[in-house]
Amino acid sequence: MTYGFDTLQIHAGARPDPATGARQTPIYQTTAYVFRDADHAAALFNLQEVGYIYSRLTNPTVSVLQERVATLEGGAGAVCCSSGHAAQILALFPLMGPGCNVVVSTRLYGGSITQFSQTIRRFGWSAKFVDFDDLAAIEAAIDPGTRAIFCESIANPGGYITDLDAVAAISDKAGLPLIVDNTSATPYLCRPIEHGATLVVHSMTKYLTGNGTVTGGVVVDSGRFDWSASGKFPSLSEPESAYHGLKFHETFGPLAFTFHGIAIGLRDLGMTLNPQAAHYTLMGIETLSLRMARHVENAVRIATWLESHPAVEAVTYAGLPSSPWHDRMARICPKGAGGLFTVTLKGGYDACIRLVDRLELFSHVANLGDTRSLVIHSASTTHRQLTPEQQTAAGAAPNVVRFSIGIEDADDIIADLEQALAQIGI
Ligand SMILES: *Cc1c(COP(=O)(O)O)cnc(C)c1O
After folding, report:
1. Domain extent at residue 418
2. Interatomic CA distance for residues 26 and 57, integer angstroms
3. What pTM was computed for the model?
4. Closest residue CA from atom 6 of ligand 1
């Protein structure tokens, strides 16, 4: 029996608690788990038996969340971690080594651009930034040191949709895994694995939790990549000395990446999601489809209204027919282009700052995907560390504000924008 999305977002991974019958998934607030006996402990430590040892690696509340997100994304398995940025490191960690590179889209979340252009260099890794609408440029950027291709499905904040099928065709041909950050779309709007993604990463901080309470991340594995084919991924295909020469791919097949993520990634990098945070995210996911449908409905209405406002030069939202990426929506995310868009104001940088200060219902925060409407002037905040060229490429030029449209009454959101825009002049 296969259930629909609305059913799975409530039930996948969860079953009544075996000890108490508790219907809601308990928060297993424990660090460690009692072994049945010494043989049981040895089997767990050898990865011969699956079970709970210590909450840096696995925790029953977190496990339910892993199974739920993997199911909603159509993946074989998933590993949760402490934030979206942690998920990106956890995804790259088994693939990369000193001297290796990842080919990434220029249209990424600002923090990801910083992580990839600066911080990963400390590991001896590097990123090659390419315009992902230029397929020839992606192919040209791939070299013998490339270990992955990385992009966002719906790119935050530029109102951009990646042609995932076309990018997956390139990664397939090159024998490389395609990693897709699906944070802005969520599996309700886009399922990257169906378009050829190998791994899907999320900042669960955003729409999956949906209420601005916790940070979290997840890496979902499609289970479809042959890690042994090229010799490029020895962490997954070759003997692992920390586990008596066990080969993850040979032993765990489609779950190789997931087991490695827990047994090596979480064990040694320690970027673990705590059970409280997993609980908040599980609560959020129960209403994901309802929220996303409303985010989209409100975003379309408000973006349309803003597009005809005299103070507005342009609205960048793939949900509008005026967007150059609107046609891709039907193929990549047919239920809508999400709740994020950017607005270019005729009044430039100063008008953006004044707008942000005069809005009342909107909160001025560095977050997105909350039930409440949020606004930020990216160039002076999240994208501050970038050069003006990088800002513009990422859809965060100085005369642009980003909106994350909430699920309040659309009339109230429009009224707030109307009063604030009236105060800034044109
Ligand atoms: C927020 C965000 C991240 C980073 O996630 P954190 O949970 O803040 O670490 C990565 N990618 C996208 C698209 C995001 O919106």
Report:
1. 288-423
2. 18
3. 0.96
4. 84
